[in-house]
Amino acid sequence: MPQRSIPLLFTAIALLAGAAMPALAGEDNDHAVYKELLESSLKDKRGLKFFINGNTVGGAVTRLIGDEAVEVRNQEFGRIVIRLDRVDAIAGQ
After folding, report:
1. What pLDDT score was predicted for residue 2?
2. Which of 6, 18, 81, 85 could serve as a FRET partner for 53 with CA atoms 20 to 30 Å apart?
């Protein structure tokens, strides 16, 4: 490997490591935002829209099942259980 390539390699590794750090730190923040929306929906009986693998499911939260899942209801179904690790995004007011 040429002498000039080594600093470039270390720079690339440092940039990649730095880019991964905010993603790891952001997971807890995302979880807090999800929890805030879920608790608000549970308290105010307002609906949310869950985006799951390209599909959407709308409903109001009826129960929080630990940190793993949430139970919602809508006009079509009285009981829907959604695993939170499968949710891509949540929309609500």
Report:
1. 52
2. 18
CATH of the domain at 86: 2.30.30.100
- For residue 36, give every residue at least 6 positions away whose Cβ sits within 8 Å of its Cβ, in sequence order, or none: none
Q: What is the sign of the dihedral through the CA atoms of 89, 55, 79 and 69?
A: negative
- State the first-to-last Cα distance of the chain, in angstroms, to the nearest integer: 56
**CB within 8 A of 14, min separation 6: which ones?**
none
pLDDT in tens, 2-47: 555 555 545 555 555 554 444 444 456 667 888 999 999 999 999 9
50: nearest Cα among 72, 17, 65, 30: 72
**What's the structural domain count of the chain?**
1
| Per-residue model confidence (pLDDT) at position 92 | 87
